[in-house]
Automatic annotation (TrEMBL):
Keywords: Membrane, Transmembrane, Transmembrane helix. Residues 30-61 have a biased composition (Basic and acidic residues). Coiled coil: none annotated. The chain crosses the membrane at residues 105-124, 196-217, 224-239, 245-263, 283-301, 307-325, 345-369, 423-442, 449-468, 488-508. Residues 1-20, 30-84 are annotated as: Disordered. It comes from the Bacteria. This is 4-amino-4-deoxy-L-arabinose transferase-like glycosyltransferase. Residues 65-75 have a biased composition (Pro residues).
């Protein structure tokens, strides 16, 4: 076909070439790629063919994006979209604080404090003038707190040489030290503020029990409802009501809190196992610091806690070694531990655990030094045997329980020392733990381990009432001196209660899961009021069993003479119970006093009281001078019915001493 027969050949190219300058760069390239190639006629000569080639066109210069200098402002900029400004530091800080204040654990802390105020009522009603349970040990421990706060500011090297029990040394080691509370007692100034600080710490200790147990059970994998039931059952178990007069025994909240932090730091939970991606050395370090603080409160609970931490360290070391073993005989163990190629501990966690264990041991040993200098009791083994509870004591509630106190009066009378042997953790807790063996969110092997641990803890709690304690309690605790206060096996009920609470949380959690599944099948998917009440029933029942009827006696007013008379002195009358109140009165001046209550230095204090029973006479005066006492303060309103009832009216001219009559007391100057 000739060229005349193809008039349209290549005709579409010319408009495209004409449009090309008006197209963008990308459109021009696309247009060139899509155009239909035209049929070319045979070139007559190479020169003609070269002339037909079109030279590539130059790219168009882009338009300026900014206005030239001096040009008027563009009126269309008011319609432009402005980018959203990121929040400033103040807004980000306020948002972070807001998230912290409504975090789950923040809400748990608020609830713990409110519940503690309600469950310890009326401790907060008259916090300046009353003490929980009685005026014995609470008065002495209020004095301990005040002394620690005072001496750490004035002369820390005299910490262990307290002003009471003069002239004995290391008298601050007569009982659990409560040193961890010393920073809170530095504001103490006299018995009134000492009582206030004691009551506030008493309530805070109950709040920490709830919060620590909640954090532990949540870390193990329970839902909030199950963790709340476990926390209430642990913190307000009926047996604990008999210990309301012992702040050192109530102050056990650091134990579950430290365990929760250590589990969180190692990325372990009972429900989900070991998750290396969740490991955090900071949480592990915090757990060890809380553990060290807990043992600084006293050895009565600190020594069993140290054994538990030691067992955890052994498990970690053995597990780490087992994961590195590749021998055939250890393959089954490696499969049981899961993921043998992933190390159980990273190098950061290994260093943290090593340093944490050393700090914990260092704090314990440093505090233990003065306790080793305190004279041991020759009847320590007899005391352990006396305080060992029978198995039936785990079903008997204390007198301070509003629910079971009156109902268990008869069986409680059969116990040798009911205050330390009424060890009921709660019948509701028993029922929930028993249900947890059948259905639970915990795996079957975990339930079996919990059951074995509960059995072992019960055996230890029985002390010498199980096989004489030769293979159970005595090898673990029988070799400690009397000052370490391991003579009462019933206080190990703390661990029985904690294990029962974990087992019960699994049952409550499974019940809540089933209830939520049932509610999801409703139309609309919403739980009814009866279903909501059913999910809260275990929590209500546990709280009812922890309802207390604890007495809160009024603290006797401090005699004015205690603020003016200096020591060393003896305050009369003196007795095991009243001397603890005298110790509290001495917190105004902390003068040296020979008085000292409780069962500490019992032989010496008993000798003191018998030697001064006839005061004022030559024998008692010479004895007091021999021990360095130069002043005797006789409280007139306290001596009725005692051997010192007429001591303030006896002439002293022939005794070579001076007497000074005050409004409410008589002061005898022996020197």
């Amino acid at each position: 076909m000739t060229e005349q027969q193809q008039p349209n050949a290549g005709a579409a190219v010319k408009p495209r070439r004409w449009l090309r300058p008006w197209l963008g760069k990308s459109e021009a390239k696309a247009e060139v790629a899509l155009k239909i190639p035209e049929q070319r006629k045979p070139a007559e000569s190479p020169k003609e063919d070269a002339q037909e080639k079109v030279a590539p066109e130059k790219e168009r210069t882009p338009l300026p994006s900014t206005r030239p200098p001096g040009a008027p402002p563009d009126p269309w900029t008011v319609f432009a979209t402005t980018p959203e400004q990121p929040p400033g530091r103040i807004r980000r800080g306020l948002a972070a604080v807001g998230r912290t204040l409504i975090h789950e654990y923040a809400l748990a802390a608020y609830a713990s404090v409110v519940i503690a105020v309600l469950m310890t009522w009326p401790a907060i009603r008259y916090p300046l003038h009353t003490l929980p349970q009685d005026l014995g040990d609470p008065s002495r421990q209020a004095w301990q707190l005040a002394w620690a706060g005072h001496i750490l500011i004035t002369d820390p090297k005299l910490l262990w040489h307290a002003n009471a029990y003069f002239p004995l040394t290391d008298s601050y080691a007569f009982g659990d030290s409560l040193l961890g509370y010393a920073p809170f007692a530095m504001l103490s100034n006299g018995p009134v503020t000492a009582v206030l600080i004691y009551n506030l710490l008493f309530i805070a200790a109950h709040a920490l029990l709830v919060f620590g147990a909640y954090a532990l059970v949540r870390q193990l994998g329970a839902r909030p409802t199950g963790a709340a039931v476990a926390a209430m059952a642990f913190a307000y178990a009926p047996w604990r009501l008999a210990q309301e007069g012992h702040l050192d025994i109530i102050s056990a909240g650091g134990i579950p809190l430290a365990l929760a932090m250590l589990a969180r730091g190692h990325g372990w939970s009972m429900r989900y196992g070991l998750r290396p991606s969740r490991r955090h050395a900071g949480w592990a370090a915090a757990g060890w610091l809380v553990a060290a603080w807990q043992i600084s409160l006293g050895f009565a609970l600190g020594i069993p806690f140290a054994y538990v931490l030691g067992l955890i360290l052994i498990v970690l070391v053995v597990g780490s070694l087992a994961r590195r073993v590749r021998k055939p005989e250890f393959r089954a163990l490696a499969r049981f531990l899961r993921k043998p190629t992933v190390p159980l501990l990273g190098w950061r966690l290994a260093i943290t655990d090593t340093l944490g264990a050393l700090i914990f041991a260092g704090v314990a040993l440093l505090i233990a030094v003065p306790y080793t200098r305190v004279a041991d009791s020759p009847t320590r083994a007899d005391e352990i045997d006396f305080f060992s509870p029978p198995l039936r004591s785990l079903l008997i509630g204390p007198a301070e329980s509003r629910i079971w106190g009156g109902a268990h009066e008869v069986p409680r009378a059969s116990l040798g020392w009911a205050a330390e042997m009424s060890l009921l953790p709660g019948f509701v807790l028993y029922a929930l733990a028993l249900a947890g063996l059948g259905f639970s969110v915990w795996r079957l092997r975990h339930r079996m381990v919990l059951m074995v641990a509960i059995t072992f803890a019960v055996v230890l709690t029985m002390g010498t009432n199980y096989l004489g304690g030769r293979f159970t309690y005595l090898p673990l605790f029988g070799h400690y001196g009397a000052s370490f206060d391991q003579r009462i096996p019933g206080r190990l009920m703390l661990w029985v209660t904690l294990l029962l609470a974990i087992l019960a949380a699994g049952a409550v959690d499974d019940f809540v899961r089933r209830a939520e599944h049932l509610a999801a099948q409703r139309v609309p998917a919403w739980p009814g009021p009866w279903l909501r009440l059913a999910m809260l029933t275990p929590l209500i029942l546990v709280a009812l069993e922890g309802w207390n009827s604890t007495a809160h006696p009024v603290v006797p007013e401090q005699p004015a003479a205690m603020r003016t008379v200096t020591g060393p002195m003896l305050v009369l009358p003196t007795a095991e119970l009243s001397d603890q109140t005298v110790q509290l009165w001495s917190t105004s001046e902390f003068q040296a006093i020979a008085n000292g209550g409780g069962t500490f230095a019992a032989t010496r204090q008993s000798e003191l009281r018998s030697r001064v029973a006839t005061f004022p006479d030559i024998a008692s005066i010479e004895y007091l001078r021999s021990i360095g006492v130069g002043t005797v303060l006789l409280l007139r309103d306290q001596v009725a019915g005692t051997s010192w009832e007429r001591a303030g009216d006896i002439p002293v001219d022939s005794l070579n001493i001076k007497r000074e009559d005050l409004t409410d007391a008589v002061v005898f100057r022996l020197n």
